[in-house]
Hints:
Layout: E1 3-7, E2 10-12, E3 18-25, H1 27-30, E4 35-40, E5 47-52, E6 58-60, E7 68-73, E8 78-83, E9 92-98, E10 111-115
Parallel strand pairs: 2-10
Antiparallel strand pairs: 1-3, 3-8, 4-5, 4-9, 5-6, 7-8, 9-10
Amino acid sequence: HVRLEESGGGSVQPGGSLRLSCSVFETALFNVNTMAWYRQAPGGRREMVARVLPDETTEYADSVKGRFTITRENAKLMVYLQMNNLKAEDTAKYYCNNYAPVPTWSWGPGTQVTVSS
C-alpha cells in the first residue's frame, strides 16, 4: 500500500504562482515509477497534467505546457509541480500518483488550487 500526500495548494490571482509537493511513502516503488500530477475541477473528470519518468524526462498536457514544471527528488521520495502564470481554468484539486500508464496507487487527499481575481 502506497500512501501519497499532497500539499502547497492555495488561492492566488491570475498570473500568480504556486508550488505543489507530493510525498510518497513507499521507498521500493518510487524510483522505478513514472510519477504524475493530476487535477480534477468541480464536475469534471480527473486529468493528467504532467508526468516525470524515472530518468526525469517530462511530458505535459497542452493546457499547461510552458507554464508548469514537474520535477522529482528520488532521494527524498518527493514530486513537485511548479505552476506559473496561473489561469482561472487551472482551478481544481490536484493529486499526485504514479502513471503506469493509468494511476494504480490509492489516491491521497489532494490539494486545492483556486485561481481567482
